Each structure stands twice: as structure tokens, then as C-alpha cells.
């Protein structure tokens, strides 16, 4: 039933639990994993880009943009290192795993990738935002639950 499991990985605290749940499911069903990290400014810990009015000749704007670019590259590298370490952990646990990192809006990118990779299950975390914070921040897990074309396992 489960052969291709897409695991949405991020740098949040729940990310480790999501990964461990996916390993348990993959071992129980002899499935392979695809670890996906979506590079997004929505992710906790992503670089912050201050508002710059470069068209108005803002002094120091080029330096701010260059710093942001460097921070973004470091953030992307951190994501790749996380994916590599999780792939190694999966392999050590006897689970076949590969990984990819994609830029984009998390919910849409997860759903689109799951469909193109032909995943039969998505494992994703839920941070527990509710009420006003979910209204303003949105919910990646909620988006995935409503738009995915396969099973979705939400880890709380």
C-alpha cells in the first residue's frame, strides 16, 4: 500500500518527530522515502529581508541585498546538510531514502512535488497554530490536507 513516502522536512522542533514517524512507517511497509525541504521565507529561521527602496537611491541598499543573499545561501546549505544527515540516518535504519530541496511556497510545493514524484503518502508536521495565528500565518499542513492527491499523515 505504501511504497513511496514523501517526507516534508524543515528545521522546526517537530521536524525530527516527522522524520522518525516516516522511518517507522517506511520500515513497517518496506517503502522508500523522499525527503523534501522547501526553501521558503515562511520557514522559521529563514533570512529576513528588510524593505528597501532601491529606486529612491537608498544608501547601503546594495550591501543589505548582498548580506541577504549570503544569509539565504547559508540557509539553503543548512537545509541540504539537514537532508543529507536525515538520508544517512534512514540508510542506517535500513530504509532507502533520497532527498531534494526546492524553493517555493511550502504547501503548494509539497503537493506539486508529491504528485510529480507519484508519492502515495505525505508525512508532514503540524506546529499547532490555531485561531488568529493560523488565520494570518496560514497552515502548511492544512493546505496539504486539502490539496494533496494522496494519503497525508500529520504528525503533531
CATH architecture: 3-Layer(aba) Sandwich
Structural class: alpha/beta
The CA-CA distance between the termini, in Å, is 23 Å
Query: Which bin fits the share of residues in helices?
Result: 40-55%
Molecular shape? globular
Report the CATH C-level class. Alpha Beta
Annotation field: number of helices = 5
Protein name: UspA domain-containing protein
InterPro entries: Rossmann-like_a/b/a_fold, Universal_stress_UspA, UspA
Family: Belongs to the universal stress protein A family.
Organism: Aliterella atlantica CENA595
SSE map:
Blueprint: E1 4-9, H1 15-29, E2 32-39, H2 61-92, E3 97-103, H3 106-117, E4 121-125, H4 131-137, H5 140-147, E5 151-155
Parallel strand pairs: 1-2, 1-4, 2-3, 4-5
Helix pairs in contact: 3-5
Can you describe this structure?
Pfam families: Usp. Residues 1-155 form the UspA domain. By secondary structure, the protein is an alpha/beta fold. It contains 5 helices and 5 strands, in the order E-H-E-H-E-H-E-H-H-E. A 5-stranded parallel β-sheet has the order 3-2-1-4-5, with helices on both faces. The model is unreliable at 131-137 (pLDDT under 50).
Amino acid at each position: 500500500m505504501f511504497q513511496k513516502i514523501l517526507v516534508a522536512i524543515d528545521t522546526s522542533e517537530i521536524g525530527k518527530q516527522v522524520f522518525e514517524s516516516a522511518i517507522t512507517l517506511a520500515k513497517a511497509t518496506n517503502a522508500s522515502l523522499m525527503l523534501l525541504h522547501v526553501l521558503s521565507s515562511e520557514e522559521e529561521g529563514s533570512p529576513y529581508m528588510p524593505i528597501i527602496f532601491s529606486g529612491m537611491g537608498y544608501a547601503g541598499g546594495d550591501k543589505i541585498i548582498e548580506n541577504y543573499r549570503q544569509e539565504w545561501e547559508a540557509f539553503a546549505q543548512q537545509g541540504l546538510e539537514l537532508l543529507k544527515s536525515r538520508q544517512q540516518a534512514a540508510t542506517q535504519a535500513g530504509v532507502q531514502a533520497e532527498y531534494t530541496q526546492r524553493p517555493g511556497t511550502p504547501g503548494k510545493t509539497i503537493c506539486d512535488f508529491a504528485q510529480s514524484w507519484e508519492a502515495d503518502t505525505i508525512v508532514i508536521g503540524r506546529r499547532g497554530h490555531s485561531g488568529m495565528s493560523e488565520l494570518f500565518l496560514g497552515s502548511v499542513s492544512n493546505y496539504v490536507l486539502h490539496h494533496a492527491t494522496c494519503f497525508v499523515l500529520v504528525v503533531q
